Each structure stands twice: as structure tokens, then as C-alpha cells.
Amino acid sequence: MSETALLDFYWVKVENVRPELTRRYLAVGRDTDDARRSATPLEDESVSAYQVNGFDNLRFSYWIKKTPTLRELRDFYVTMSKLQTSGMPLNLSLEMTLPIVGNPHFRYAIVGLIHEIRTNGRTLADSMLLFPHVFAQEQVAMVRAGEESGELSQVLERMSMFYDKNTAIMSRLRNALIYPAVIGTAAFGVMIFVSIKFIPQIKDLYAQFRAPLPWPTLAVDFVSGFIRRQPWLWGFIGFGIYRFIKYWPTFYAKQAVQRFFVSKTGPLGDLILRLFIARALRSVAMLLNAGVPVQDAYRLAAAITTYVDFQVMFISLRQDILAGVSIFRSINRYRHYFRKHGFYIASYIRMAEQGGEVGIVMARLAEYYEREVDARMANIDKLVEPITVIFLGAAICFLLISVYYPIFALASYVIPGVKH
Q1: Total-model pTM
Q2: How many CB atoms lie within 10 A of CB 168?
Q3: For 7, left (φ over 0), alpha (ψ -120 to 50), or beta?
């Protein structure tokens, strides 16, 4: 059982003697029996499954991702760490996580883990290797280190903390963008409504007196006419926004784009750099504290980070470690990748290496930069609201001028001797 098999979508229905407790959810599998395995029925419940066909199957195939989100990974590892700490067997712990997993591909992978552990006697790490689109390399490496050291519950707890930190940071960034996005969309909608509803009437009125329209009204009328003459533009704009959102990660993954945002956008660039540093240090600290060798930790950290410069740095650090260079000397050699934070980080790593606590110190450095990111994000939240209000006020003011000014100015053409 692996994710290389061709999977179909199924609706799984768990019927209870009490109708209000009957539930249905989406699953994937090779056949109906495969899909029914993801159910966790009680003693008095029955399970049925039927395949999703037609447009729904196409829609699910396109929209549902095979890779779980950070939030889903966090919830999974939080639950697993608690159950393993309580002494519950591994396969039962995995079964207990099924009700909290919403992604059908993730649920299918968990069912596969249970099957491999219970039937084939594989370890958790070896079973996770069968589902590389769900469990990344660093997760497998940490779980393997935890199983070999007998500290699987502690490793799972560190993994849950790692994904919890990443989820919190991404949520703060997302929330900071929601307010201006909503206000901007509302302002654009009001502008389109006014330009289509009122401006044409004012234009016709001015045409009767053969009078020139004021330039604010002409500007809004240009937008109105362009949209009315070419309604397909709405579809083009919507498709453009969709493509931008969909391919933004690919565009942002380019080294030149990342360097531009980090070095050319002032305080925003410093915030982005601190965010990358926090996530990079947290990744390495998590791996080292789980018992992963330094060279493997650097290799996995290069695969985790999305900052291209840090990918190059971790690969170079790994080569130095394999050549026998100390951790401090290798980091000090490539500290320019951290820019102005390089000397500070290298100094702490030097003290940590002397005390044999590199993983612990990296975790503390990560916490420091995470606090810095939180503080700066709080300041951005305070600035976003007044800037958005100013933008909205300017847009409304422009619309009012474009509508009311021509009405008052029309008096000079209707009543002789009145100046506008």
C-alpha cells in the first residue's frame, strides 16, 4: 500500500442508529474497501462507500492538495506526541488521529502507516517513506532518530512545536493582509458601481450643453467605458488574479526576486530576512535536538528552507562538516548569508560549540528571531489600518469629486454669468 497507486475519490458514510450522529466525509483509495479503511466506526455503526464521479471527481482532483498544510501537520504531531507520552501503542495512536484529519490524501497515508506497522512489521519511519508527498525527508529523519534513541514521544513533541511556530507565523502574515485586501476590494467595487451607474448620466447631461467634463469625471468615465465596452475584462482580471496567487510561490522561489525583497524593500526586507533566519535556525535546532547528525541536519535544512541563499549556505556548511571543519568555523565562513545578523549568530554558535549545546542555542536564537518577527508584525498591524483608511478616504474623496463637482460646475453653463 503506497501513494504510487492510482487513487480515486469516494464518499464514505458512517451510519449510526441515531440519525443525527451519522456522518459523511471524503476519502481516497484504489477501491471501496480501501476507502472504507479510513473510517473509525463505533460498535453500533456501519460503513459504506461509493465512488465520486463526474464533475465532482474532477473538482476534487484539481482543488484538493496531496500535501497536508502546516496546520494539519501540527494537529497530527500534537495528537501523536500526547498519545505516545501516555503509553498508547503506535498503531492505536495513529488510529486516534484519523478523526481530526480532513485531507483525504493525508488520511489515506495514515491508514497506510497503520497497515505497514501492523501487517508488515515496519517501523514508523520506514512506513513514512512510502508516502513522500505527505511526509517530507526531515520528518522521516526525525522520526527515525526518535525510534532509534527510544525518545519518539519527545521527538514528536518537538515536531509539533516546530509546526506550531510556523503555523503561527504564517497566520500572522496572512491576517495582516486580509484587512487591506478586503478594504481595497470594497473600494474597487464602489468605484466600478459609481462609474457605471452615475457617470454616464452626468456625461449625457454635459453633452446636452456641449460642455467639457472635469478631468476627475473623465478619468472615471474612461474606466467605466472601458469596462462596459469590454465585459470580458472581468474574466481576464479574475484569471490574472488566480494565476498570480497560484504561481506566486514559483515566482518568489527565484533567487533574484528574493534578494530584491530582502535588500531593496527596507524594513519589510529586514522582516522577511528575520523570518527566514528564524525558520532556518528552528529547522536545524529541531533536527539536532532529535539526534540527527550535523551533516544530515544541514542537508535536510537545505530541503526545508524556501530561501535560495540559505539553501546554498546549508549545502556549503554540509561540505565543510564532511571535510572536518568545525561548526563555528563553517558558519563564520558563510555568515554573510545572514547579512547584518551573521556576526551575532556566529558568536553564539561559537560559545554553543564549546559547551556542546549547538542545538539548544540554535533553538534559543530561533525563539529570539521569532519574537522579533512577532513584534515587527504587531507594528505592521498598527500601521496597516491607518494607511488603509487613508487610501480608502482618498478613493472615496476622488469619487465624490468626480460625481458632485460636475453637478455644481454645470451651473456656469445653465445660468449665464455664474463662474465654475
Answers
A1: 0.70
A2: 15
A3: beta
Phi, psi (deg, nearest 5) at residue 145: -65, -40
Average pLDDT along the chain: 83
What confidence tens digit (pLDDT) does each residue in 12-39 have? 888 877 777 788 878 888 888 878 887 7
What is d(CA 321, CA 315) in angstroms, rounded to the nearest whole number? 10
Q: Is 406 exposed, middle or buried (0-12, 13-18, 19+ CB in 10 A)?
A: buried
Q: What is the pLDDT of residues 263-288, one digit of tens each?
A: 888 888 888 899 889 888 988 988 88
Q: Inform me whether the pLDDT recorded for 1 exceeds 60.
A: no
| CB burial of residue 11 (10 Å; 0-12, 13-18, 19+) | middle
The label of the residue with cell 488603509 reads 388
Residues 6+ apart with CB under 8 A from 350: 328, 332
Are residues 203 and 185 in contact, defined by beta-carbon separation less than 8 angstroms?
A: no
HEC letters along the chain: CCCCCCCEEEEEEEECCCHHHCEEEEEEECCHHHHHCCCCCCCCCEEEEEECCHHHHHHHHHHCCCCCCHHHHHHHHHHHHHHHHCCCCHHHHHHHHHHHCCCHHHHHHHHHHHHHHHHCCCCHHHHHCCCCCCCCHHHHHHHHHHHHHCCHHHHHHHHHHHHHHHHHHHHHHHHHHHHHHHHHHHHHHHHHHHHHHCHHHHHHHHHHCCCCCCHHHHHHHHHHHHHHHCCHHHHHHHHHHHHHHHHHHHHHCCHHHHHHHHHHCCHHHHHHHHHHHHHHHHHHHHHHHCCCCHHHHHHHHHHHCCCHHHHHHHHHHHHHHHCCCCHHHHHHHCHHHHHHHHHHHHHHHHHHHHHCCHHHHHHHHHHHHHHHHHHHHHHHHHHHHHHHHHHHHHHHHHHHHHHHHHHHHCHHHHCCCCCC
Q: What is the pLDDT of residue 12?
A: 85
Q: With cut-offs at 50, 70 and 90, classify the pLDDT of residue 242.
A: confident
**What is the Cα–Cα distance from 18 to 357, expressed in whole angstroms?**
56
216 close to 184: Cβ distance less than 8 angstroms: no
User: Distance between CA 36 and CA 310 in Å, rounded?
Assistant: 44
